[in-house]
Design brief:
Shape: elongated
Distance between the termini: 55 Å
Number of domains: 1
Helix content: 55-70%
Radius of gyration: 17 Å
Amino acid sequence: MSAARVISLIIVNTLAWLLFHVGWVWLGNKVPRAFFARPRAFLRVYGFERSGFFYERILFVKRWKELLPDAAGWMAGGFEKKRLRGRDPDYLRDFLHETRRAELVHWLVFFSAALFYFWNPPWVVKWMFLYSSLANLPCIIVQRYNRARFERLLEI
């Protein structure tokens, strides 16, 4: 593969990731909050998550979750989830709903890696999935961890 081809792939792939990240966040913010008011199939909390043991003791989420960025503030109407701003049940419910929105968006960005198959050689697609995993799975884990905690607090 020529150097020019490699450089063009780097530019195209970088722009594609930017488009996927921003596009899915923009679309995710257009979905009414009411859509996230009830748990949907894969966005619900499962039994092994309720105690938080899996996330705290196996994945050590408390050690690294603060290192993740919260891009919600970058978009108008974004709901910041980096810090808890109160314990009011309505606020906690809104936060819970926003964890579902954020998780859905991260899953959509994650699976966007499959689209790179259409213009990249297979070895590049593997790197795109690696990037997608590293960029999205930690965020998904934190959303699921927080949601389990909020459901416990709200006794849902």
